[in-house]
Amino acid sequence: MKKLIQTLKNIWGIEELKSKILVTLLLVFVYRLGTHIVLPGIDPNKLAGLAGAKSGALGLIDAFSGGAFSTASILGLGIMPYISASIFMQLMTILVPQMQKVQKEGESGRKKINQWTRYLTVVVTFVQAYAYVTYLKTMAKDAMIDSYAPYFWISTPIILTAGTLFVMWLGEKITDKGLGNGTSLIIMIGILARLPLAFKNELSAKLVRGTGGLLIFIIEIVVLIAIILGLILLIQGVRKVPVNYAKQIVGNRQFGGARQFLSLKVNSAGVMPIIFAQAIMFLPTLISYTSFESKEGISRIFSDPKDFLHMLIYAVIVIAFTFLYTALIFNPKQIADDLKRNNGFIPGVKPGQPTVDYIGAVMDKITLPGAVLLAVVGILPGFAQRLDITQGFAGFFGGTSLLIMVGVILDTLQQIETQLLMRQYDGLMKSGRIQGRQSSVSNAVI
Q: Which fold has domain 14-193?
């Protein structure tokens, strides 16, 4: 406890770090305040019809927006359009050679891509906003104010687009003047906003059982902590490949000759495979009011996370996308070329194509267990619901929400620890430094 108090004093004693924390808290407060402002033309007291926005892809949007989607807030679309645009632009920079050239232009290239991402965000937001208007017209007819109905189609897309751009601006300001990645923090805050209510509902459901209910709830908390610890290992897990650098003697000075390590992440794809898998699993549920739609139909299987067939298909998609996305973002030839250019080599492996093959083989070997573990994380909420855990609380036992939450917290703590170590203070942990995700890919997406 004394160590913790001293660490908190050290953090608060660093003026720059204190300023970053205060700015971050202020901007997060502004964001959370905006999520409680309802769209014009909607009666907030009659929004019970939006309870259906708690599962499937709509549930993911609602989670990322901190519940603003299901409450018809002016920030109802949250940061999701920007995430969609960022994912698209990121894939384009990998697949399109012209985009790769722009990205390699350095700072000017990154500014161009960021600007194109913003323009694309506006387009995506307008499309999603009109879809959201149609959704509100269908699911919240009783909450619509009749006198405002003629203007609803026009004002709502404009307000929702402005709201998404405002959230994007808040995220950029947090990144520039606050602590951590602003977009990631906004998503994490939205996810954490649901935790108190989910915690309360789960505790109430267990206490209703009477004897033994509280003990079961404590066991659930212990299991949740164990899952979080395992997820931290998955996020931070790396395979270190030894690399030697040739010695160079210039005059009386020696350069190189040091032995370093090439860190290959077990989970290089981050949260992307789970996001892609959720999007694909949601597509069959769009087949509504057709011959496929029945109690035992395709839609039920793909929309019910508790169904064993759903879990199997979901796990296979996650594993497949993990290999696909890792192949897209990981380039062993570029790594081998960089090593050769810097007079580095892997002991026992010849430079050139043998190094490319060796790095690729190592990456394939560690990607398989990483993909399987990621698939397990993705289907854990379904198992939690099968064990009679409420749907809201089960969502924190795995899936996108937990993966993003743990990753963002690790990144934020890593930045705090860096600030402490720069000023000769002790780090946050005695056993070693917090590593975070150390992945530009996951940071770019979330």
A: Preprotein translocase SecY subunit (1.10.3370)
